[in-house]
From TrEMBL:
Pfam families: SUFBD_core
Lineage top rank: taxon: Bacteria
PANTHER family tied to this protein: PROTEIN ABCI7, CHLOROPLASTIC
Protein name (database record): SufD family Fe-S cluster assembly protein
Stretches assigned to the SUF system FeS cluster assembly SufBD core domain: 97-321
Native species: Gallintestinimicrobium propionicum
Source species taxonomy: Bacteria, Bacillati, Bacillota, Clostridia, Lachnospirales
Biological process, per Gene Ontology: iron-sulfur cluster assembly
Amino acid sequence: MDMKINFLPAKTWNWLRMNETEVKQVKADRQALEKEEIPETFAVEASTLEPIKTGMGPDMDKLAEQSGFAAKVYRMPAGIKEAAALRLGFVCKDQTASLDLIDLIAEENSEMTVVMDYASDADAEGLCSVRTRVKVGKGALLRLVQIDCLGKGFRVLNDVGSICEDQGRIEMVHIFLGGGKIYQGCQTELLGNESSLQSDIGYLLQDDQRLDMNYVALHEGKRTNSEINASGVLKDASSKLFRGTIDFQHGSAESVGAEKEDVLLMGDDVVNQTIPLILCAEEDVKGSHGASIGQLDEETLFYMQARGISEEQAYALMADARIEAVCQKIPDETAQKLVKAYLGGDAADECEKNS
């Protein structure tokens, strides 16, 4: 099917071509989930959640329905706080198109951590699609880490939708390193009072990689809080489109939302597009957004060169530092090592070995 995804909640000028994205000839002929490490406290089910809106939009649900694949549900029972992470490894094969449907449920006053990584051979080509739906109960905490280590010949559709009840917390870390064309959608509904979202995004794009993102934080309950931080590097002829929306809906009084982006440009042919958006239907709220986009400033570069560091080395160090800063927010040492192995060389092979 041909899909339209990543809709901007409030449209801008059509000539900018940022209101939505078209993805052609999407299909699914297999599932890629091959590796599971499931702590004993998790319950694994075959049932599905009630419909949850995701960042990509309804076409992802249509794809799921057409595929005939069932969602796999991982549930943390009420009151259980599990320190060990649930690990899900998706191994994508050359010349295949996969779709995996994952539902995560953290019941009242529980805590759970989920690490999902996507891997393939370095020279493999294909399509990797994953839809993840999340429900966080009252007073619960869910940490979700998703790491893209795919080969540069893959198209990637990574879609997330989540809802959060009273005093529930969602902490997400997304790291994009592999894939050729990467499409990321993420929408979180802060339904309950004093619920919160912390979202950290890191990316390193090289050659002609393209990353298309749509992040939406919907504030519905009172005294809700959201923070969306994106930090990345664009090299060579790579490109990135970031849509970041904070939506204060009626009834979300005393809520706070913040969005920040930091982009390092390391090539004359890179393309960087950013469209921050704050929507407001409530008076007593605070929303902010900011962006730092550009090359290394001359003062920093001079400081490094005075200490024997070349311009090329200086940029490499700063690029690694941005990814490292996001990596440090991953609440799992094994997942941190996975990212560092990819950056250190042997790329997808290392990712597949460690997933």
